[in-house]
TrEMBL record:
Gene Ontology molecular function terms on file: DNA binding
InterPro entries: Carb_Metab_HTH_regulators, DeoR-like_C, DeoR_HTH, NagB/RpiA_transferase-like, WH_DNA-bd_sf
SMART domains (alphabetical): DeoRC (SM01134), HTH_DEOR (SM00420)
Presence of the UniProt keyword DNA-binding in the record: yes
Domain HTH deoR-type: 3-58
UniProt keywords, alphabetically: DNA-binding, Repressor, Transcription, Transcription regulation
Statement: the UniProt record of this protein carries the keyword Ligase: no
Highest taxon in the source lineage: Bacteria
Name this polypeptide is given: Lactose phosphotransferase system repressor
Function: Repressor of the lactose catabolism operon. Galactose-6-phosphate is the inducer.
SUPFAM superfamilies membership: NagB/RpiA/CoA transferase-like (SSF100950), Winged helix' DNA-binding domain (SSF46785)
Length: 253
């Protein structure tokens, strides 16, 4: 087993049972405790686990929200495949919303040059990238900028969304489950995401397989409100079938 595969399995176990133990993991993976400690350090630096005495716990159990920079370093190949698959959901021309997030940020990087699009974003870094493109008309939502996600929130971002109608909203989420729908840790950011979905004719969720089964504080949509879920090939086929049964088309990139 490669180190990355072992680390993903450690993360899966931590989220499933709430805690992992160094000694137990070393025995189960037939590696040294030093190797497991290095794995936990990698996962902690990625912002998905928090080290505790003798092991680690998932950050969502502590109410922590990984910063955007940390999330951007995790599942990079999967996020790039998801973004490439999302290009098929773009209109030939018209208007789109791109939500703040590490996977949606990959889509921003590869928007085709042959599409005349109006793009609404709530992320200053994404707006900066898009503004250099001559084929795009970029609208930046105002408001308070959250330090962890670099997303604009609150009334100055909400009011414009109530006045627009776009073809497609490309959404990010921290967690997605059948029971809780699409969730995120921050209520202010959840309100913006909800308004984005309401402003769009179609909504597309971009989420790697680690997001499924997780639930955070604030729900912003049910699965039935999402038209397409684009994830990666690492998603469990049973989970993918359950997601599709709840309403959206599921694309495994």
């Amino acid at each position: 087993m490669y180190a990355e595969e072992r680390q993903q399995e450690i993360l899966r176990r931590a989220r499933a049972i709430g805690r992992v133990d160094v000694v137990t993991l070393a025995a189960e993976f037939s590696v040294t405790t030093e190797t497991i400690r290095r794995d936990l350090t990698v996962l902690e630096r990625a912002g998905v686990l928090r080290r505790v005495h003798g092991g680690a716990i998932p950050v969502e159990r502590l109410g922590f929200e990984p910063a955007l920079a940390a999330r951007d370093e995790v599942m990079t190949a999967e996020k790039e495949r998801i973004a490439k698959a999302a290009v098929a959901e773009l209109p030939e021309d018209g208007s789109i919303i791109i939500d703040a997030g590490s996977t949606t940020g990959r889509l921003v990087q590869i928007l085709p040059a042959d599409r005349e699009l109006t793009v609404i974003v709530n992320s200053p870094p994404l707006a900066t990238v898009l503004a250099t493109r001559s084929n795009l008309s970029v609208i930046m939502l105002g408001g308070r900028v959250r330090g962890r996600t670099l997303a604009t929130v609150d009334d100055w971002a909400l009011r414009p969304l109530a006045q627009v109608n776009v073809d497609v909203a490309f959404m990010a989420a921290n967690g997605c489950s059948l029971r809780h729908g699409l969730t995120t840790p921050d209520p202010a950011e959840a309100a913006i995401k909800r308004a984005m979905i309401e402003a769009a004719n179609r909504s597309v969720l971009l989420a790697d397989h680690t997001k499924f089964g997780d639930a955070y504080l604030s729900r912003f949509a049910s699965l039935s409100e999402i038209d397409v879920v684009i994830t990666d090939s690492g998603v469990d086929p049973v989970v993918a079938a359950e997601l599709a049964g709840a309403g959206p088309e599921v694309v495994r990139a």
